[in-house]
Amino acid sequence: MISYIKFFLCMIVGLLLWNVLFSSDNQTLVDIIGISFFTTFFKWLYEVSFEGSEGTEEI
């Protein structure tokens, strides 16, 4: 679960930096959070469906 939270936060930071560096692609904060949420959801779905990890993580 911690890895998904870290991934989600890294997505937000990365998209914010992308938005600052390339200002022609104007996204609102709601867009950035939405994209990060759906990306994290599909990352989880991929790992559960195809890799069979079922949300377990190694310490």
Helix content: over 70%
Radius of gyration: 13 Å
Query: What is the tally of beta strands?
Result: 0
Residue-averaged pLDDT:
83
Distance between the termini: 11 Å
Backbone structural class: mainly alpha
**Strand residue percentage:** under 5%
Q: Provide the succession of SSEs.
A: HH
Major beta sheet summary? none
Q: DSSP helix count?
A: 2
Describe the secondary structure blueprint for this structure.
Blueprint: H1 2-21, H2 29-51
Summarize the structure.
The chain is mainly alpha-helical and 59 residues long. Helices cover 73% and strands 0% of the residues.
Structure overview:
- The chain is an all-alpha fold and 59 residues long.
- It has one domain (2-51).
- The protein is 73% helix and 0% strand.
- It contains two helices and no strands.
- Helix 1 (2-21) packs across helix 2.
Give structural attributes.
59 residues; mainly alpha; 2 helices; 73% helix; 0% strand
